[in-house]
Specification:
The protein is mainly alpha-helical. The protein is about 70% helix and about 0% strand. The longest helix has about 35 residues.
Length: about 270
């Protein structure tokens, strides 16, 4: 059998991807519903309460505000680096499950909130790493190598989702099917874009933990809520990537955004 001419391979370089079937459309509908529901009542309450305290944080000197943004960027970078290491140690079994991640996040938040803002800032890298590990587990459940450079960058991208009340769509779908190449400048550029958005979200967390007496309870509660939110966003992010590998990014994202628009449309009262 003769080999296919080079000219024919250029005309048809790849087999056509199958169109969306009923199962794929149902999966996209479920992901859109999960995206729409990500801003739970608990998270909305945290945003409201934290927002009141955060007004006070805005009065802090610029150097203090810069410290918070720097802490967010450092926490993301540390989480990214640790995510490339194998999951071993005494806590590995507990942290392997979603419930384990939630428990660790709540313990970390409670301890971080005991001393107000200084200990809350010190606890931030721990909380971010626990959430990152949970996002990694979601990626693995969707058929991705959790320690590969591309998957770790995709996990990092989840933290650029903002949060309920920030006025965004939750995830940046331009990264769903992207093949990201790891270089020092590329990672720095991605962190520079994501860190300010993440810092604006964790402002509520830090504000809540800065409240005297209530700091420990606020820390545990906010960490639980943040874990819930970013894990939901990760399921949407990696669920869409999995569907895009079969049906193509354009078809999947067009259907996804159509479902989101339908969910946001106000009900017609008759």
């Amino acid at each position: 059998m003769t080999a296919e001419p080079e000219s024919m391979r250029l005309v048809n370089p790849d087999p056509a991807q199958p169109p969306l079937d009923d199962a794929a459309r149902a999966a996209i509908k479920a992901l859109a519903a999960q995206q729409h529901a990500a801003g739970t009542v608990l998270m909305q309450v945290i945003n409201f309460v934290g927002g009141q305290v955060e007004d006070g944080l805005k009065l802090l000197p610029g150097a203090q505000r810069a410290r918070i943004e720097s802490a967010a960027s450092a926490a993301l970078r540390q989480s990214y680096d640790l995510a490339g290491q194998s999951r071993r140690g005494a806590m590995a079994g507990l942290a392997a499950s979603e419930s384990g991640h939630r428990a660790l996040a709540m313990i970390s938040g409670a301890l971080g909130g005991m001393g107000g803002l200084p200990t809350a800032l010190a606890e931030l890298p721990v909380a971010t790493t626990v959430i990152f590990r949970s996002v990694q587990s979601v990626a693995e459940a969707h058929g991705e190598d959790p320690k590969s450079e591309e998957t770790r960058l995709q996990c990092l991208q989840v933290f650029g989702a903002g949060g309920p009340g920030t006025g965004d769509d939750g995830i940046d779908t331009s990264f769903i099917g992207a093949r990201l190449t790891l270089t020092g400048p590329a990672l720095n550029k991605l962190l520079a874009r994501i860190a300010p958005r993440f810092a604006s979200v964790i402002g509520q967390k830090l504000a809540g933990q800065a409240v005297p007496v209530l700091g420990a309870a606020a820390g545990a509660g906010t960490n639980y809520a943040f874990m819930d939110y970013y894990t939901r966003i990760a399921r949407v992010h990696f669920g869409l990537r999995k569907l895009a590998r079969t049906h193509g990014e354009e078809a999947v994202l067009t259907a996804f955004h159509a479902e989101l628009a339908r969910l946001r449309r106000p009900a017609i009262r008759r």
